[in-house]
């Protein structure tokens, strides 16, 4: 499995992965599939803000997953906190791509000086919760029935990873 920075040439694969998750998983709480243009806008917005889009390729060079992080909330008091997403094609799940992508995002968030990485996970997704726990995340809350998809109410599990040991925010922040 190879990890690398995503490029605009990867957008059709990222769109396929994203829309597969919209169609088949409770991970993305929408029924609206994205277009290539909307994925391009998302990608360019991330890149222009200095935010990562990482892809995982299998041995044949096929993009099988991607991960990224972005602002947790827009107000300036949250500026050292980011929320991430990792998605993997069905045939590549359980083969390590998700963990590699998550570990790389943790490394990048630390390197960019962020303090906390947030995961917002469907409460039924035990595999993702377990993966995050293996990577050091802690469950900090469960919001019951705050979402819906496929005719079900969905719980949101919030998990966090504190990325540094700063007792107080750095000066100037």
UniProtKB/TrEMBL annotation:
Pfam family, one: Acetyltransf_1
Alphabetized InterPro entries for the sequence: Acyl_CoA_acyltransferase, GNAT_dom
Keyword annotations of the record: Acyltransferase, Transferase
The N-acetyltransferase domain, residue ranges: 1-164
Protein name: N-acetyltransferase
Originating organism: Roseibium litorale
Organism lineage: Bacteria, Pseudomonadati, Pseudomonadota, Alphaproteobacteria, Hyphomicrobiales
């Amino acid at each position: 499995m190879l990890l690398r920075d995503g490029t605009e040439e990867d957008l059709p694969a990222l769109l396929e992965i994203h829309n597969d998750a919209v169609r088949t998983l409770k991970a993305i709480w929408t029924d609206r599939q994205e277009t290539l243009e909307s994925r391009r806008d998302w990608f360019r917005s991330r890149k222009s803000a200095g935010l990562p889009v990482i892809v995982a390729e299998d041995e044949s060079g096929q993009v099988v997953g991607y991960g990224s992080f972005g602002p947790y909330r827009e107000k300036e008091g949250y500026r050292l906190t980011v929320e991430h997403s990792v998605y993997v094609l069905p045939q590549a799940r359980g083969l390590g791509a998700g963990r590699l992508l998550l570990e790389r995002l943790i490394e990048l968030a630390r390197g960019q000086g962020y303090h906390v990485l947030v995961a917002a996970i469907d409460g039924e997704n035990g595999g993702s919760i377990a993966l995050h726990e293996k990577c050091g995340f802690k469950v900090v809350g469960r919001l019951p029935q705050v979402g819906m998809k496929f005719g079900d109410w969905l719980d949101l599990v919030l998990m966090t990873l504190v990325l540094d040991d700063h007792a107080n925010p750095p000066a100037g922040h």
